[in-house]
Amino acid sequence: MFSKLLLNSLYGKLSANPAEYRSYIIIPPDKAAALADPKSTYSFAGELGPWALASRPLEDHLRRYYNVATGASITGYVRAMLWRAIHSSKGAMYCDTDSIACRGRGAAVRLGDALGLWKHEGDFDRAGIAGKKLYIFRGAGRPRFYKTAAKGAKLTHAELWRVAAGGAVEYRAEVPTYSIHKAPHFMDRTITKTTKGTR
User: Fold this and answer.
1) Phi-psi category of 164—alpha, beta or left, where left has phi over 0 and alpha has psi -120 to 50?
2) pTM
């Protein structure tokens, strides 16, 4: 399990594009004016609370291209595996990178605890699917259990059912959003359904 988590976390680095990266430093705000000097290798990049943020492109020796082909091959292999599993399943309703919600498991979906095998998350008798990473599944039997997702929000079961049925939920984040371009602020948004059908 440790190896799996480590490799899953690191393989994306194989495809990283260092041309998009920058070196950052935090400086006192009264020093930010000096960044306008043509001799300065840094430029003003924003504010970070009471501090100023300066950045510059990565130096050449820090720009490392690892192996884009390996990263793409891993992604392609897993997507092909998911595609075969979806087509061998009956009544697929939803899928994510590593999951399928369906009415019946197909031959390409091999269950088990070993790496690369699928895990059976449970049997469900009701589903509300509102969009990518926005769903609720109610477990069959007792005691009741739920499998839910609401990426970027913390919604109750009732709110998830409402959104999946075509309603809207006004959501205010519990913690502020931080950005180098503006002061910390709370995000308010309306969460609505982005896909068709509820079962």
Assistant:
1) alpha
2) 0.71
